[in-house]
């Protein structure tokens, strides 16, 4: 499933609310929260896609609008595409990844949990998620630095793993941030004694688009959220602005509960604020991160409750707990998995 070409990432995004002091110097969110703008409840996927288009003005929004209409055609065309070119990787001059029906991991970390959570999985749009649909935007202004958006994006791609907080381990392939390649993620959803290991997720995202000033990643089945994140750099009022924008909903009931009541949403806010502050610090800037969020669709999609079957957090925990059994099995069979 390949979304149509995105809008120019340089186009500024209208913020529902931006609070410059929302993130303090230590990376913790303050009590001031951006106001959520609730759109009318929609009745079907087509209406939801239209609501997305009206609300989200970033490149990721266009993909959401088209997802419902293109998914069936993309899946039907997959067999012919894969027969001609089995790899998901696009040509060097093509910013889009090739359409696929199922993920096949390449250059993944040795930890077999990644293969268990990714091989054979589909990439999913917000339409396939369970919880409320949110658009979240995080921005940092690189004032006083003589750089271009292209230079900022090149730096961001190169240092993407090192800009992450300690609880997030990102592993791009040797090709880097390229269309069709995976970025493997080993993260802890909840921080705290005993909770970090219990909420570990060994999964990843697929780069579906990448050009000189932006890239977009898409989540697979079982990932905590279903949807896209777009990372972009553009000029605004004489300075380069770096931005992260996500259009996503919690994938299943367990993730939705975690986001609402166990600090999941706060953890996500801290993560992307940390990434943007790290990018600014690379240029010697101590910057404040502006953030906003918009509730695009307030529905809970109960028909997607079965997504819990692929829950990567549960499967990662079970994979870790089954290590003694697999060790004995491998010793008996002479295999190593």
Task: Name a few traits of the molecule.
Alpha-D-Glucose-1,6-Bisphosphate, Chain A, domain 4; 31% helix; alpha+beta; nine-stranded antiparallel β-sheet
Tell me about this structure.
The chain is globular and about 65 Å long. Strands 1, 2, 3, 4, 5, 6, 7, 8 and 9 form a nine-stranded antiparallel sheet that branches. The protein is α+β, with helices and mostly antiparallel strands and 337 residues long. It has a single domain (45-333), classed as Alpha-D-Glucose-1,6-Bisphosphate, Chain A, domain 4, CATH 3.30.530. The protein contains nine helices and nine strands. Residues 1-87 have low confidence and may be disordered.
Fold blueprint:
Blueprint: H1 45-55, H2 59-84, H3 113-118, E1 123-124, E2 133-142, H4 149-158, E3 168-172, E4 182-188, H5 195-198, E5 200-210, E6 214-220, E7 225-236, E8 239-250, H6 253-261, H7 264-282, E9 289-297, H8 312-321, H9 323-333
Antiparallel strand pairs: 1-6, 2-8, 2-9, 3-4, 4-5, 5-6, 6-7, 7-8
One letter per element, helices H and strands E, the order comes to HHHEEHEEHEEEEHHEHH
CATH class category name: Alpha Beta
Proportion of residues in extended strands: 15-25%
Q: Strand tally, please?
A: 9
Indicate the structural class: alpha+beta
Q: Indicate how many domains the architecture comprises.
A: 1
How would you summarize this macromolecular structure in one to three sentences?
The protein is of the alpha+beta class. It has helices at 45-55, 59-84, 113-118, 149-158, 195-198, 253-261, 264-282, 312-321, 323-333; strands spanning 123-124, 133-142, 168-172, 182-188, 200-210, 214-220, 225-236, 239-250, 289-297.
